[in-house]
Amino acid sequence: MAVSSAVAGFRDLGFAPVPEVIFTHLVYNTAPMKDSEQAQDNGCAIRRGEVVSNVSLCREHYRLTIVVSGEGLGERSELGSGFPVPVAGQFVHLSPQRRAPSCDRMDESAPAIDSGGAMLRRAFSIAGYRTTANGAEVDVIYRVVGVGTRWMATLRAGDSVSVLGPQGNAFPIVEDATSALLVAGGVGLPPMLFLAEALRDAGRQTVAICGAQTVDLLALTMDERVPPSPSGREATASADEFTERGANVVISTDDGSLGLRGHVGEALTAYCDANPVEPDDVVVYTCGPERMMEFVAEFCDVRGIRCYVCMERAMACGTGMCQSCVVPVRDEVDAEGWRYQLCCMDGPVFDASDVLFAQPSS
Question: 4-167 adopts what CATH topology?
Answer without folding.
Answer: Elongation Factor Tu (Ef-tu); domain 3 (2.40.30)
